[in-house]
């Protein structure tokens, strides 16, 4: 009971309904707006990181203790403000159960790539946030579409293979909210909202139940890693006239945190190579998106051709207890463009 009391998230306040049957909500690509305001093309390909021990267990640097709570072959770990699951089972044995987990929770998957190790839900609404008054109770089942929370959520799950044969599972959240554009409240727009880390932890807890733990075991495990010291701050800098992000952390932890930042800010990673410290991504610039019609015209529609994305490499280099994150071109040359400045600023904001 004491452990359960540590958690501030009300786990019964979750009842998602996918927005797939309604107009699809897309995230705007303008990185200048907010750190969660990004859009990347969905590529394919085999993850080279799997063959190169991408999920090797991280060794926390001095002052960044990793908290672990293990039950059976499932455990939840925390380092700084980040939490993830570690399961002593191969990734190919976990893919189907994890996939079923999201479907059972009311989501539709828009990305389902076992080779890449990433699945992502469509935008969905948490219907448990709707007020349950008398009118809502009487009419809700008949006119359910008339009610809306004004919020939508999307979750990405990434499976990383470990050198010991186990798997690390990361769950990241992105949110959007509908806000009024005028004082008369006669028009609205969708804007990004901050990632909800407690919601991420709650879904990891529920995933632990799917993987064999009891409700009591999962709640105790999740509650034991709730309180976390602040993670080291990131800061912008320049190196050889190119923008970079500096982290006072060793490579292992920086690699994990950059991967989570890419997930939370909407990057789609088409490949990753941990031995070289590189995430391969594709980026659509705000200027290219505006030229193709803009975000607002496509917010609730999939029609029209998207602007061609540009390939980049996000490189993590570690030297002792310090790491440097830089943006490279597809050929591996340091990038100095406006896009590189935008991307490093987005990563810095999320890593702070």
What is the secondary structure topology, with strand pairs?
Elements: H1 2-5, E1 16-18, H2 48-51, E2 66-71, E3 74-79, E4 82-87, H3 91-104, E5 109-113, E6 118-121, E7 124-126, H4 134-139, E8 151-161, E9 167-180, E10 188-193, H5 197-210, H6 215-223, E11 234-239, E12 242-247, H7 251-264, E13 269-273, E14 278-283, H8 286-291, E15 310-319, E16 322-329, H9 338-351
Antiparallel strand pairs: 1-7, 2-3, 3-4, 4-9, 5-6, 6-8, 8-9, 9-10, 11-12, 12-16, 13-14, 14-15, 15-16
Q: Report the major sheet.
A: 8 strands, antiparallel
- The SS-based structural class is alpha+beta
Shape field: globular
Chain-averaged pLDDT: 76
SSE order: HEHEEEHEEEHEEEHHEEHEEHEEH
**DSSP helix count?**
9
Radius of gyration: 20 Å
Give the total of domains. Answer: 1
Number of beta-strand segments: 16
The residue ranges in which pLDDT falls below 50 over 5 or more consecutive positions are: 1-8, 21-64, 292-305
Distance between the termini: 33 Å
Helix content: 10-25%
| Percent of residues in β-strands | 25-35%
InterPro entries: BamC_C (IPR042268), NlpB/DapX (IPR010653)
Protein name: Outer membrane protein assembly factor BamC
Protein architecture, described:
This is Outer membrane protein assembly factor BamC. InterPro entries: BamC_C (IPR042268), NlpB/DapX (IPR010653). The protein is α+β, with helices and mostly antiparallel strands and 352 residues long. It has one domain. Helix content is 24%, strand content 30%. The strands form 3 sheets. Strands 2, 3, 4, 5, 6, 8, 9 and 10 form an 8-stranded antiparallel β-sheet that branches. Strands 11-12-16-15-14-13 form a 6-stranded antiparallel β-sheet. The protein has a two-stranded antiparallel ribbon with strand order 1-7. Helix 5 packs antiparallel against helix 6. The longest helix has 14 residues, at 91-104. It starts with a helix and ends with a helix. The model is unreliable at 1-8, 21-64 and 292-305 (pLDDT under 50).
């Amino acid at each position: 009971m004491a452990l359960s009391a540590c958690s501030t998230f009300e786990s019964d306040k979750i009842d998602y309904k996918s927005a797939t049957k309604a107009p699809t909500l897309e995230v705007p690509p303008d990185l200048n707006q907010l750190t969660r305001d990004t859009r990347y093309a969905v590529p394919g390909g085999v993850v080279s990181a799997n063959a190169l021990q991408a999920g090797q267990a991280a060794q926390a640097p001095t002052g960044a203790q990793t908290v672990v709570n293990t039950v059976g072959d499932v455990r939840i770990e925390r380092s700084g403000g980040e939490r993830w699951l570690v399961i002593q089972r191969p990734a190919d044995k976990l893919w189907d159960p994890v996939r079923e987990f999201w479907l059972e929770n009311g989501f539709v998957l828009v990305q389902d790539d076992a080779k890449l190790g990433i699945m992502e839900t469509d935008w969905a609404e948490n219907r448990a946030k709707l007020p349950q008054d008398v009118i809502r109770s009487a009419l809700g089942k008949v006119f359910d579409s008339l009610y809306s929370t004004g919020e939508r959520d999307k979750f990405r799950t990434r499976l990383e293979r470990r050198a010991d044969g186990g798997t690390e599972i990361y769950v990241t959240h992105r949110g959007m909210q509908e806000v009024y554009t005028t004082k008369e409240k006669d028009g609205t727009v969708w804007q990004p909202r901050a990632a909800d880390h407690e919601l991420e932890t709650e879904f990891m807890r529920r995933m632990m139940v799917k993987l064999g733990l009891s409700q009591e075991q999962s709640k105790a495990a999740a509650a034991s890693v709730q309180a976390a010291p602040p993670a080291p701050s990131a800061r912008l800098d320049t190196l050889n006239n190119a923008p970079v992000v500096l982290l006072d952390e060793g490579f292992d932890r920086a690699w994990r945190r950059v991967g989570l930042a890419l997930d939370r800010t909407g990057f789609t990673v088409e490949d990753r190579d941990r031995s070289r410290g590189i995430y391969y991504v594709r980026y659509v610039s705000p200027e290219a998106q505006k030229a193709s019609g803009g975000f607002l015209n496509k917010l609730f529609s999939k029609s029209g051709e998207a602007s061609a994305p540009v390939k980049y490499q996000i490189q993590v280099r570690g030297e002792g207890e310090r790491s440097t994150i830089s943006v490279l071109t597809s050929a591996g040359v340091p990038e100095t463009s406006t896009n590189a400045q935008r991307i490093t600023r987005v990563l810095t904001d999320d890593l702070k």
